[in-house]
Amino acid sequence: MSLCSPASEVLSKVSLNGEWRLTSPQRPEISVPMTLPGDNVSALLAAGVIVNPYWGDNEKQVQWIAEVDWHLERTVWVDDAMLASQAIWLSMTRVDTFMTLYINQIEVLTCSNMFARHQVDIRPFLRAGENHLCAQFYRVDLKAKQRAERLAFPVPSAMGNNQLPHMNLVRKTQCHSGWDWGICLMVSGIYDAIELQVINQTWLKTLSTEQKWLDDGGVKVTLIAEVETTQPIQLYFSLAEQECQIEVQDGGSVQCSFVVSSPQLWWPNGYGEQPLYRAQVRFAEQRLERLIGLRQLQLNRQEDEIGSAMEFVVNGVPIFAKGANWIPLDAMPARETPARYRQRLQSAVDANMNMIRVWGGGQYESELFYLLCDELGLLVWQDMMFACSLYPSHEAFLREVEQEIAYQVPRLREHPSVALWCGDNEVIGAIGWYEESRANRVKYTVNYDRLNRHIEQHVLALDDTRAFWPSSPCNGELDFGDAWHDDNKGDMHFWDVWHSGKSFSAYQAINPRFCSEFGFQSWPSLAEVKAFAPAHDWNITSPTFETHQKNPRGNSIITEMFTRYFRFPSGFEQMLYLSQVQQAMAIKTASEHWRAISPICRGILYWQLNDNWPVSSWSSIEYSGRWKQLHYQAKRFFAPIHVVFSSHTGVLSLHLLNDSRRCSNVSGAVSWMNWQGEVLHSWPLTCQMNANSNQIVWQDRLNLAQSNEGFYYVEVQGEGETIINTWFATHELKKLPMKEACIEVKIDADEITLIANNPAFYVHLECDTSGRFSDSSFTLLPGKAVTIRFLGEDKEAMADSLRVYHLMQN
Ligand code: BMA
């Protein structure tokens, strides 16, 4: 590729993406192609230098990659015309991490923060003809160690998660060195497209927008362009169909306002549409544009008789936030493809989610992620990238953090989906986790606050339209209390069930205002296991399977919980299946209780949506994109209109929940059935629902709730959807005299028809090819045929590999 473009092409933007050469000074035998944007591990894998780190226990065989430096080189051809330009600006983001760029052996730029933007005019370093570019990446472990040696006092890092020390001193994705669901893969590279801009006289640098809401319901949208110019120019601004031309004499900030008198409002998923308006500024061939959404958003923190609210309000409407936590899409960033981002986020929306939390141990996500969230109506709870460690607050570190805020906040504030800035993940809690900080709490709390205040000030200086929340979890400003257990105020991370071994009913004993993390692990599906373990390792305690479990007690917790709730499964495949039943049951129990106490609780984000490699974890979507049972269940328990059994009022009641803005009607029946599926009692239901409501529509007057002789089943129709739910007297399903069931399965192209002879529970469909089913993990009543559609490409592969599981399989 050449920097020299043919005369007919626009000369203002050229690219340094594409093929570079990857070498390592310590491993002279390695010289392989590497595509940018991309990472070194993917390049080494593609060239056959390393084994697949995701297969078997290969992880340990690739650790040497972190113990050498890496060089990326290429040449570019530059012609006289290009050199005659005023400047050639190079702009790089997601440079991971300690990198020095040389052009023709001259040092041009050094980077030490993966989350910041690095810009330099490279024209002075270029010459006509061939130019040599070399990006040298230095070992992160050594740099981190050097930084640790220079600290005035120790700042402990998350060694329970990280396999390398002092990651907290480096502005790099914290989970790259491993997490309790993550492989340790110390990738390096450049993960965003590299931009080059050739500048002559005029440079359109940035475009930002502001919204001012008017009393008559209209909105004034101001477009602000930063321009450098040495000549008078005409700038063309536009917003949707409206246009305006402004004469600019010299550079600076140029503004132009438009009034949209009847704005089409942007709404979170489930509350309305997501119209986007195109805002644009142009000069000659230079053009900057943004797709903006018109919406108002507040965080309601009003004090009340319980404590204080934690509720997002969009366009004046209080929202019940429902969703999950997001971790990086892949441990190899080169695999962050648009199709995979879309599949994950579309799956979130398909499961009726309206909020995603970008977790602080990962990364400020790629532009595409936020564009998709805008398009799909997923609000984003945006953590700043600090997690589970303590962090320094000395000058040099604060300067690095400022750099990333200066880039990230202006970039992200343009997205209607971004709802909240949050200072970090669990860093307040971490003060209590380490010996040093426990012994000197005041010092470490002040240290925490220095950094956190600094982040807050810099974030709010760049965006005062959103709230800044100090940490997740947190009870409120300057409150360093125990947000893991205080359910009166703020957001909560509730880990008493998974990490502390309480029973599922512990979820029903708390009434969080907003639960931003709680989770329960499952093992991967058999289809997923096939992608990382040879058949002879299909055993929970095989070393391969254990390598793919990063929470040291994880497999024991899953197994021990089986003994509480279920009859023990008979083999490996049944164990995998049952672990997903158990996970779905845990998260459903919590989510349904917290919805049934609405409006006390106004947010449920479970841990975690996705996996960044094939692993046993808390995710509801596997690495391959396959939905676990939890994800199918989430589609039901997060639906805007839902029916939930709950006894928190003292008597088992059916709550009819409507989180939407529409009034609506539902009708159907609640039934009490025996284990043969015979209806012993039935209560018809016809109800009217107000918008944003929670009403009790039925109660267990016959007091059957204590009985093991049967189960409650509710089925109602509302807005063209069938809404179902099943209720058992106990979580200890092992005590219920369920009958063995046989399910007859008929496949006709993409339609699978199931018919059972006895009630079958947690009926789950799985196949080895990609694609999901229209429904799964449901109760199948006897004699009632249910037809499920396969939503995937390869129907034949589905039919060949289809497995139907359920709880009482013989
Ligand atoms: C949460 C997260 C992660 C972790 C998860 C499971 O608190 O913030 O640190 O992966 O717990 O332990």
Automatic annotation (TrEMBL):
<feature type="domain" description="Beta-mannosidase-like galactose-binding">
    <location>
        <begin position="20"/>
        <end position="191"/>
    </location>
</feature>
<keyword id="KW-0325">Glycoprotein</keyword>
<protein>
    <recommendedName>
        <fullName>beta-mannosidase</fullName>
        <ecNumber>3.2.1.25</ecNumber>
    </recommendedName>
</protein>
<dbReference type="InterPro" id="IPR008979">
    <property type="entry name" value="Galactose-bd-like_sf"/>
</dbReference>
<dbReference type="InterPro" id="IPR013783">
    <property type="entry name" value="Ig-like_fold"/>
</dbReference>
<dbReference type="InterPro" id="IPR054593">
    <property type="entry name" value="Beta-mannosidase-like_N2"/>
</dbReference>
<dbReference type="Pfam" id="PF22666">
    <property type="entry name" value="Glyco_hydro_2_N2"/>
</dbReference>
<dbReference type="InterPro" id="IPR036156">
    <property type="entry name" value="Beta-gal/glucu_dom_sf"/>
</dbReference>
<feature type="domain" description="Beta-mannosidase Ig-fold">
    <location>
        <begin position="746"/>
        <end position="809"/>
    </location>
</feature>
<dbReference type="InterPro" id="IPR017853">
    <property type="entry name" value="GH"/>
</dbReference>
<dbReference type="InterPro" id="IPR050887">
    <property type="entry name" value="Beta-mannosidase_GH2"/>
</dbReference>
<dbReference type="InterPro" id="IPR041625">
    <property type="entry name" value="Beta-mannosidase_Ig"/>
</dbReference>
<keyword id="KW-0326">Glycosidase</keyword>
<keyword id="KW-0378">Hydrolase</keyword>
<dbReference type="Pfam" id="PF17753">
    <property type="entry name" value="Ig_mannosidase"/>
</dbReference>
